[in-house]
Sequence to fold (269 residues):
Amino acid sequence: MVRTSYKCRQLSAKILQALVLVSDNNYYRIVELLKECLGDSMKHEEVSEQYFEILGELLAKDKIDEIVRKNQENEDLYISILSGLFEQVTLKCIALGYVQKKKERLGIDGLYVDMNQGKGLGEIIDIASNMIQVDFIKKEFKSGTYTYATIKSLLSIRKLFLLKNKTLINCENKINKMFKEINSDSDEEKHNFILACIRLTEECDKQEVAFLYEHIKNIIDPVKHIPNYQLNLIKNPNHEIYLRGRMSKNPYSLKDLGASMRDVLDKIC
Fold:
């Protein structure tokens, strides 16, 4: 990435956008070039606004669907781009981890937060999360290929408590959404997820290990859902001295009543 004026970058972006409209071949060439510049864009986030804008447009779900409908052979291109995005997420999380360690050494608390911190990370996570909405990319994403990278990224972002700003909070939320998707359906996905978690425990601290084991436990022994029944309570008139109240809100929700008779009394009396 070359440091140029904002107007120059804007003009370059418009030229690229115009070239994309000329032919599909231009689209492929520009996407390939943008892919090659991904690492440089993360090193120079402050001048990469237009880069991420164009990349986001060219990798939007509708655009990918349109291109793949014409030629399914291009699916590999998008899979490789997604891999590159996750690689940059991992590298950026590591870099931010070093920034936090430096803050800790200097005794700087989390009250003074750089609001621009993680801007590039937010951009590539946005692009990755949008790409995952495409059917064939989602299938590849959930096949286990990105399980390790997704979990590792989430653990890394969760630890950046001294750097947390709105951008990094949004990053964590989106990675967390991906984290939930990779083990949500088939037994194979859950198997891959558990293997990735166990693999990660070898390089995690105690807090991270506890987090991973908690999720493994939820897969092996999920919390049983208790149906929320509606109960119609009937009181014998002779019990008025014990059960006061008219119970005018019949039927009562099981969750509202609670688990014991004491809870029921508190609710209706």
About this structure: The mean pLDDT is 81. The longest strand covers residues 230-231. The two ends are 71 Å apart (CA to CA).
